[in-house]
Structures are given as structure tokens and as C-alpha cells.
Amino acid sequence: WPVLLSVICSPPQNYPLYIRSIPTENELKFHYTVHTSLDVVDEKISAMGKALVDQRELYLGLLYPTEDYKVYGYVTNSKVKFVMVVDSSNTALRDNEIRSMFRKLHNSYTDIMCNPFYNPGDRIHSRAFDNMVNSMMMQVC
Questions:
Q1: What are φ and ψ of residue 6, in 5° steps?
Q2: In this structure, are residues 41 and 75 in contact, taking their beta carbons and an 8 Å threshold?
Q3: CATH of the domain at 9
Q4: Range of 1's domain?
Q5: For 63, phi and psi rounded to 5 degrees?
Q6: Angle, helix 95-113 to helix 127-140, in steps of 10 degrees
Q7: One Pfam family for this entry, by name (predicted)?
Q8: Pairing assessment for the beta strands 58-65 and 3-8 based on DSSP bridges
Q9: What does pTM read for this prediction?
Q10: Looking at the 3D structure of the chain, how many domains does it have?
């Protein structure tokens, strides 16, 4: 089951800070799907309005399903977006598992942001983050 995870910078840039896919040859193919999903993320955020400003996390759930993939989204308070693309045939993943995976990602991303040697907005190059993402993705596959 192919899986892709992408961390996208806050607006207005919206460029990827981190992209990982299993298997790795699908990575470029998913770029279009991820960029298309950013429009859906922005629509969901604006539709929710001010009601969710006080919440600590913005799990957006299923952004849109395609014939082959399901695209899920999550946004932090600082408007950093996490996008996950999973195979539609993967019925083992429930909403709670996806939500839990996004929380883990958010916590690891927060650890990176706390590193004094990391410049916010730079691509993420962290062995600890890579290991966490790889272990999480292997559970899904």
C-alpha cells in the first residue's frame, strides 16, 4: 500500500518542508495530489471560520477521496499543513489512527522547531523525524 506524507510551509509560500513516500518512486507522482489538496485545506479552514481558533489542533479529516487514494489533512495553529495520502484499498486505517498519526507528526515537528539550529521555513533534515515517519509509515503499509 503506497503512502505519502508531506509537511507544507505556512501561507503564502505553501512549499513542502518535508516529503516522504513508501515506495519512494511514487514521490513525484504525489506532488500534484498534495498541491491539489492545499486548496481543499484552505477551503475547510475558511469554512470553519473563527470557531476553531481556540482549539489546539485542526484535524481536517478526509479532504477528498479519489479512485486510488484518500487524502487526509491536519493544520497547526501556525498554519503549517500536514497532508497524508494513503491507498483507498487500505481499509485497516480508521479515523482515530489517522488522527493519532497526525498528533505524533505534530509533536515531532514541534521538537524540530524547538531545535535552536533549525531555521523555520527550511526543509526538514532530521534523523529523529525521519525515523519516526518511517516507523509510522511501516505500520500503515
A1: -135, 140
A2: yes
A3: 3.30.450.70
A4: 1-138
A5: -80, -50
A6: 170
A7: Sedlin_N
A8: unpaired
A9: 0.87
A10: 1
